[in-house]
Amino acid sequence: MGMEGERAGGGSANEEEDSAEQVVNPWEVSSSGGKIDYDKLIDKFGCQRLDPSLLDRVQRLTGRPPHVFLRRNVFFAHRDFTEILDAYERGEKFYLYTGRGPSSEALHLGHLVPFMFTKYLQDAFKVPLVIQLTDDEKFLWKDLSVEESQRLARENAKDIIACGFDISKTFIFSDFDYVGGAFYKNMAQVAKCVTLNKVRGIFGFTGEDHIGKVSFPPVQAVPSFPSSFPHLFTGKNDLRCLIPCAIDQDPYFRMTRDVAPRIGYHKPALIESSFFPALQGETGKMSASDPNSAIYVTDSVKDIKNKINKHAFSGGQDSIEKQRLYGANLEVDIPVKYLSFFLEDDAELECIKKEYGSGRMLTGEVKQRLADVLIETVERHRRARAAVSEEMVDAFMAIRPLPHMFD
Amino acid sequence: MGSTKEQLLDRLQELQIEFSKYEHDVVLTVEAQAKYVGHLGGALSKNLFLKDKKHRFYIVSALATTKVDLKVLSARLGLGKGGLRMAPEEALGEILKVPLGCVTPFAVINESARHVSLLLDQGFKTQERCFFHPLSNEMSIALNVSDLDKFLKSIGREPLYVDLEANPSVGKDQPPDLATFVPSDSVALPDLSEEAAIPIIAENKPKAATAKAIKPSKNVQSVKDKSTNGVYPSSSLRDAEKFVEEILDKTSALLLSKITEDTIKQHREQLGAVVGDSIRKHLSSELKMLAIMYKNTAYTEGFCAGTKMGNSRR
Questions:
Q1: What is the pTM assigned to this prediction?
Q2: Contact yes or no for B47/B148 (Cβ under 8 A)
Q3: pLDDT tens-digit profile of A13-56?
Q4: By three-state DSSP, how is residue A8 classified?
Q5: Cβ B296–A384 below 8 Å, yes or no?
Q6: B181 CA to chain A: closest CA distance, Å?
Q7: Is A345 in contact with B216 (CB distance < 8 Å)?
Q8: In chain B, which residues have their Cβ closer than 8 Å to the Cβ of A373?
């Protein structure tokens, strides 16, 4: 019996597709065809496209314009988001769950995308949020000691907090600190419902993989269940969960959704984003190991300008004359793609696309504009980060009730 | 409103920077300062506040023993001969928010000094501790220069050290080696030229064939830059009055930049509504972020107090 929506034969990480082979799972994102085909991905995974009417509905329900990532199709797919909205309309709240695998100290803009969007969701719907730092996962998969992965988790927590989450509605936890008690009970329940063959199929585990990896998936699954957080949601076993994440995390939650009804919980809903392209082009997602593939939140103004000028893949023509004649190829142009993430003004973006695509605007000008926008974003983040103290991290991570989480 | 010595010292403590502080009578010169702290085993610094012909400002902070030749520095910055001179007294108060005789690298903590370029003597690195004024000339603090770096980084500044005594030749084939220190933005003082109302944002070099539609929003974005660039001094996240002052500072800066002869002519009676919208558009997310950080800071304070109480009860 296949999992919901998956094509017969499973949607496993290693399955061959007809033309270009795409591999999209939490540990690998690549496509032999170069660009990721999102339509194919949605089809293969079995999730839904977010259509414009949903955006209108969000606007009506929240009383504010939809986030730029929704308007620009960055968050483009979902599972059961309509159910969440239906319930919300009836007065039934939900909570948000997102997370980060703290594999490196250096965060880049791509890492901030899900958090920026989650902050918007928290503010717009006025709902609580749990943020999971999977330090255990990074310990199990990478060459890190336990202490180092815990330290990275705390450092990453500061950047996450700097995105502007409301401490009276947000609980951040690291697996090494929090797993146990009710959380662990749920983990055991999930684990009992998923066979070894299943996880091999979903995640591509082999007989050579150590058992830490094989037994990890329940850890990422159970924050979707309110009973995992007795200090927050006692008596609210019926509370729904919405998970904003990048689409490569879908396998975890396909598994979770399969198990949920069997143990008496709502299936968590998902709202999924596409990948933030690397500076060098759309062949995959940014990699923390290549500093020139991304703009880091610690980059100086000079670094940012340099990276954009030297490394951002341009869709513009080779020469000014050619550019004026033919215009730029917006499909592959990275600066325009980045602007679509970070330039809030829809009208200005449209104008840039038109002028650049027709050749009236030059690559250098687009890159300059992008530099201004990213510098401002990074600056703002840095200032907010400077205001996060160790005590604030402790407070966000403390196991405490959040009496005003729905206010 | 500039930062005070207390705010600075609080900040240093928060950053866990070790420093020694010495109070003394007001001193206006290095010689006078030496009388009080010269024997205490730290290197004295001399600090110059300079300005070039294009109203750009520089702080040159050096060991008292380093020879600083303004003509050489001017050439190395690409300002030609005699391009640098001492900044006028009003600028000290307006931009650095410090009194006479009190120029110090710490002055860059002030929002008003964000476009001031800071040149640090690499000689500082050879010293165990160096003396600087902490925004007041009734006190000197001694700290290791790596801690000064820590402070500068915490306010978003990259500490850059220069061999101030070097005298490389500058010519056609040898570009000025300190050209990167020239600020991209000039700072307009209220009593200077009439362009003072809107600072010249040099980033927006006029581009030949850019579509007209882009220009206005580009300017608008840059003005937003002007009012949002800088630091959240941590004191405004703890102190309600300072918090409000910061919001009002940002808002009025934006307001002032939006009301010009041109915009008055353009919008007439509608100017109020136009400016109102503009303020909302540009400041909304910045101020919301400031507010959430204020809230988080207050919550954290309460949380810490509560946990200490809980611990002491056991």
A1: 0.67
A2: no
A3: 444 444 568 888 888 777 777 778 899 999 999 999 999 999 99
A4: coil
A5: no
A6: 12
A7: no
A8: 221
Q: Which CATH number fits domain A299-387: 3.30.1490.20, 1.10.240.10, 2.60.40.420, 1.20.120.140?
A: 1.10.240.10
Quick: pLDDT tens for B233-243: 567 788 899 99
Instruction: Give which of A298, A305, A372, A407 to mutate to test B binding, by max B Cβ within 10 Å.
Output: A372
Is the domain A25-278 a CATH 3.40.50.620 member?
Answer: yes
Closest-CA residue of B relative to A163 is B289
Q: Is B237 close to A387, i.e. CB distance below 8 A?
A: yes
Share of chain B above pLDDT 70, in %: 81
Q: How far does chain A reach from its first CA to its final CA, in angstroms?
A: 43
Q: CA of A370: which chain B residue's CA is closest? A: B218
Distance CA A352, CA B192 (A): 37
Tell me the one-letter amino acid at B74.
Answer: S
DSSP string, A255-284: HHHHHGGGGT-PPPEEEEE-PPEETTEEEE
Report yes or no for ipTM above 0.85. yes
> Is the Cβ pair A345, B286 closer than 8 Å?
no
Query: How close B85 comes to chain A (CA, Å)?
Result: 27
CB A162 within 8 A of CB A388: yes
Domains, in order of start, for chain B? 5-189 (3.90.960.10), 194-295 (no CATH)
Of A351, A379, A395, the CB nearest to B303: A395
